[in-house]
Specification:
Elements (H helix, E strand, L loop, with lengths): L2 H41 L7 E2 L3 H19 L3 H7 L2 H6 L7 H4 L7 E13 L2 E13 L4 E14 L2 E6 L6 H6 L22 H18 L1 H6 L3 H7 L2 H6 L1 H7 L4 E8 L4 E7 L4 E8 L2 E5 L8
Antiparallel strand pairs: 1-2, 2-3, 3-4, 4-5, 6-7, 7-8, 8-9
Amino acid sequence: MNKKNIIICGIILFVLILITILVLVIDSNMDANSDIDNTDDNEDAVITSLEVVTDENDFFTVKNIINSFLELVKWNDADSLYNVINDNYINENGITLNNILTRIDYNYFSPNYVATDMYMRVYQNISYYFVDGYVLDFTDSDVLIDENVGFIVLIANNYYNIIPIEEGTNFEQFVNNYEYSDDVKVSGENAFETYDINVESKLITYIQEFINLLYADVTLAYDMLDEDAKEDFGGLSDFSNYRDAILNDLSPIVFSYSVTEADDFIRYNIVDNNQNVVTIEEFGIMDYTINLKNNNFVV
């Protein structure tokens, strides 16, 4: 084979190798693109594990959604209620526009919902908020309390639906054993505003809850005290004697506060608008103790 033929064969061989490499690269890119497409398809349906809600804005936004729902019940707004309640719940319980006010009837005069426990899980792109708490009902002459009132708030695309949890349900068992359905959709266009809560607003909420419970049930208010405060007040019976004095003098308005962070709680040292000193130790959202021992409440 002469020199010219050798060069031609070399060029042909080089071209064949180059073509083979290009084919392999193109094939590899096609496989990679196929994987990305498959991943995108799989990620369209977002599913997460059940978790305790730790974002304060989310927590209080969902709480406000429930209070808006209870306002609709209070004013017998059948059209709005029918639009807010999830379609699956409506269909499963035979609810119509004509009977919704008898099926969704909480009989509150002026309700304020207080969320105490909240879990969240995303299933098929819908955020399920499981909420347990109680209702303070402010009547003309008294403050009543309805405990263990639960809801599911479903949120998707900045709209929400509500599913009431049946009275008497064991909340923890209900949440852990809840059967999710692929058919659930957030129906209607019920928009909501995200509540951006700051520290001062949260502290006002905490002190106001304590004051409200003093009106509704002194035992529940006593249970909110830390152990030192319970001892200083001399037990539940003696604390009951201070009820009116505390209600007359304690203010939910925060004059000033300072913050100290510990390993498992945050301590807020607060001076209220009447110059009472209040110490709150917060272990989680709406999970806290209160201390009033530095104040001279007069019986």
